[in-house]
Amino acid sequence: MSTRTPGWILAILLLVAAALTSACSQLPPPAPPPPVVAPSAEAVRPLVYGMRAPDTAFLTEENAPVTLSSYWTKKPVVLIYYRGGWCPYCTRQLMGLAKTSEKLKRMGFTTLAVGADSPESIRKYSRPGVEHTFLSDRTMEGAKAFGVAFRVDDQTLARYKELGVDLEAESGETHHILPVPSVFIVGRDGVVRFVHADPDYTVRLSNEGLVFAAENAVPPQDR
Questions:
Q1: Residue 66's beta-bridge partner residues?
Q2: Phi/psi-derived region of residue 195, left when phi > 0, alpha when psi is between -120 and 50, beta in every other case
Q3: Which domains does the chain possess?
Q4: What pTM, to 2 d.p., does this model score?
Q5: Tens digits of residue pLDDT in 36-52
Q6: What is the Cα–Cα distance from 27 to 199, expressed in whole angstroms?
């Protein structure tokens, strides 16, 4: 006796599969999880591709509030989280992004550099030739929402102070929270299109890698 499935049944199954695929593609992107602070850099859980980005609020260098959606509704956003202007790895990364930010601008992106520093601390660091916009997430609410916030342990905090780094003075806050250096690319629909985060603060996404990610994350017609 033949066990072959009749053609009409296969046709129905294919139609059902196609309908389910179409329905799934039309589902809204999943919302970000509740904001959290990880106990260490290794324990952070960044947002992943396809999730909706949180419309968090930041402060400009002039201490004016601004929402992330006010940027992404105009152009896709390259959001770079860095620890602070006191971090040599961060300043090296951001200064090296000068030409890359200009290229990203020509490609149709807005580049935002967001750190734990207060607006006052941001202004005190010299950044000649830098094209990207600097924003303050001094409360680290944005970093929490993006899943890259962690609490600095007491031993590390003491070591920072020995090196002349006072996190409370830089942020104006007493939370002792820093972001894991990371890059998020957010489309004009507010959906995360690319994520790079490494708990090792000495590891950063290269300029070439950033341009490649931007080119492939958001097609030209969506910029």
A1: 58
A2: beta
A3: 30-222 (3.40.30.10)
A4: 0.85
A5: 999 999 999 999 999 99
A6: 32
